[in-house]
Amino acid sequence: MKEMFKKNMGYKSKHAADNNLLAKLRENFIITSTKASKIWGMVMSAILLVGVVWYFYSKAGTFSDYNLGLIANAIISVVIGFAIAYKLNIKNNRINQAVNVALLLISPILLLTMSELLNKLLDFGFTVLGFFGGYFLILFLILLVYAVVGSFKISFITVETLVLILSIIHFYLFKFRGTPFLPMDILAAQTAANVATTYDFSPEPILVFTVLLYLLLLIFVVKTSVPEFSFKFNISSRLVSAAVSVVTVVIYISTNFFVSLGIKPDFWNQYFSCINQGFLLNFVGNFKYMYVSEPDGYNYDEIDEYINETYNNSDDNSVKTDTPNIICIMNEALSDLSVLGDFETNEDYMPFMRNLTKNTVKGNLYMSVIGGGTSNSEFEFLTGHSMAFMPSGSYPYQSYIKKPISSIVSTLKCQGYSVESFHPYRASGWSRTNVYGNLGFDKFISLENMFNSDFINYYNTYEYDPSLLQSYVETYYPNDTDMLLRQYFSDTYDFRKIIEYYENRDSSKPYFMFNVTMQNHGGYTMSASNFNENIKVTSTTKNYDDVNRYLSLVKESDKAFEELIEYFSNIDDPTVICMFGDHQPSFETKFINNIMEIKNSDKMTIEQKQSRYCTPFYIWANYDIEERYIEALSANYLSALVLDIANVNKTTYNKYLLKLSETLPVIDFAGYIDNAGNYYTWEDESPYEDLLNNYEKIQYNNLFDQENVDKEVFYINGYVPEATDLTN
Question: Which of 52, 122, 377, 659 is the S-S candidate for 73 at Cβ 3.0 to 4.6 Å?
Fold first, then answer.
């Protein structure tokens, strides 16, 4: 009986303790709701559930392919309804303070998860350093906003919204061009807006889930009870937050402390950097490299010495008298995908270009961009400078060309050429109006001055609808019904305009035209009634619609180029035509992996990685020139080669580049290739480091040290053309 009594007393004590704990929980944590909040919660859940079900059904016409996504999105839709209907009130202020501090420490993990859902689709591949770096980055942002506004609730909502916006931008940029969102992309926002209507922005299931998660966190934070803190604590916590923020920013900007820890972008492959560090940490890490610092050992008085180590200008002081017309065409996304690996098509997609040999120099041209960044290809070609020495993710057109600099334009203008540029699209893209003025072009022909305002307004309104645009063209431009392919101006029309501008040129001067086409621009997911998709990949059982559509566009470029060459073959005026692709397209990764015979892109060899930067180039003349095939050349050398083939006067810098190309024929963002066919990344040791360092210093002098620019190196007879106003 005694033992039983003890057991019963123990049971009663434990039961009483449990009751006391429950009583305390009920006393301090109270769940409340109102009739209105329950109604709103039910309505919101119903709206979200209907929206989710409709979305998944419209996505595939069936739910079978999206069961997991449908279930996940349906569950979170219901949870959002409960979060709206009910509120947790914490009566004890100390407990409330502790809960809010705990939420502050947990919130970076939640926001990091929200961001990485879109970055890696739940494939969290963080390194330990990447995880903690991302965690403290978000915590830093919350503290920074808190120091300004004095409210953790507002701070969290602000940072959460910022993280979502940046992550969505990254999600779509990577989807469309295959590269991550980097800080310099912000400066290209206008250009991105110009072509935004040509892409498919329909949300993926993971994007829907992420937005719903954002709403859930937002509702939870808004309905969280705000604890009371003393005035002294509020002031001191804000001061501490401000001090931590300032110290962190100063350390980041003025030291390499975080870099020494390993927190820096992987410049070789920004995508892998996102995988290892997370999108947000990689994005912020790139800010440190937006600005170009002076190369080690740079001295503007020694530019001649840097040149002479490769090329001695005293060896060639001859004066050229030839002045052929020169037409250079940078063809949007033109490439021959066979450089990636073998595949077969139902017919050759570039028969004319492939067989063009008479009076032709052609070969493989290595760019510094893939899938986008057209302006960087222009920059390399026109100036002879290399993106290899630019900050990762930067766009010189947006950031650095603010004053006149030397280029093929200034070189020809000093020899009496009239110099024009032509791009059948909006002038605002890549700040071309300002940049072309600083390069010295006399004229910039763009969409705005090709057509009247009625056409411009119609095009701007219906660019997303090729059928409507085609109907408009057929009605008002019956002689130019081939003006468009999809919604972009066709190469056939583009080249016909080149002929028109040539025929209306000032014939008293030699003529230089630089043209950037639009026909092959990205957005290969949609068909159009004005575009016959004739090319099909036949060597694989899978049907790659985007690839077929792209190759069909290349076939149209091939036919248009043949017509252009045919016209100038019958012209007496000596004329040199150069055409090259600005980058390879960004589309179905599975196709690329298939023809490369790899499982995923991180398995690429250095040779395969370089092949992704390869496009074709053609230099043809309507008179006799030495014919040859160049296996490898990078875009920074191409304009010097054009000048050399045209036999016009070149600057010392042009001659230096031609000489350098004999040793290092390829220098691009991915690395460099020597004349023996050896491939190097920028992290490899090589016998060419001094040559590369000198090249970087010479480039820095022209682009960033303009007060001390060596005019005798970059200009003919030291003459610097003034910037032209192309805004009218």
Answer: 52
Q: Which residues of 387-426 are buried (b: 16+ CB within 10 A; e: fewer)?
A: bbbbbbbbbbbbbbbeebbbbbbbbbbbbebbbbbbbbbb
Give alpha helix (H) positions in 61-151.
67-85, 93-120, 128-149
Per-residue tokens: 135: 């965690």
Question: HSE (CB half, 13 Å, CA atoms) of 299?
Answer: 6
Give me 480's structure tokens. 């130019």
Residues 2-52: pLDDT tens digits? 555 445 555 555 555 556 656 666 666 677 778 888 888 888 888 888 888
Burial tier of 693 (Cβ tally within 10 Å: 0-12, 13-18, 19+): middle
Please give the helix or strand (H or E) that residue 86 lies within, else none. Answer: strand 86-90
C-alpha to C-alpha distance for 542 and 595, rounded to whole angstroms: 12
Return the half-sphere exposure (C-beta side, CA atoms, 13 A cut-off) of residue 726. 27
CA dist 705 and 169 (Å) reads: 34
Cβ–Cβ under 8 Å, residues 166 and 316: no
What Rg, from alpha-carbon coordinates, does the chain have?
A: 31
Stated pTM of the model = 0.74
Tokens linked to 461: 């309104």
Q: Is 270 helix (H, G, I), strand (E, B) or coil?
A: helix
User: Could you report the per-residue pLDDT of 352-393, keeping only the tens digit for each?
Assistant: 999 999 999 999 999 998 888 889 999 999 999 999 998 877
The rounded distance, in Å, linking the Cα atoms of 405 and 409 is 10
Could you report the per-residue pLDDT of 223-275, keeping only the tens digit for each? 777 777 777 877 888 898 888 888 888 887 777 777 777 777 765 456 777 77
Distances from the Cα of 712 to the Cα of 101, 303, 426, 719, angstroms: 65, 10, 36, 8
Contacts of 56 by beta carbon, 8 Å cutoff, 6+ apart? 63, 66, 69, 70, 73, 205
Is the alpha carbon torsion for 365, 366, 368, 369 positive or negative?
Answer: positive
> Residue 699 CB: number of other CB atoms within 10 A?
21
Amino acid at 176: F
Token look-up 């053609």 returns 618
Residue with tokens 């400078």: 385
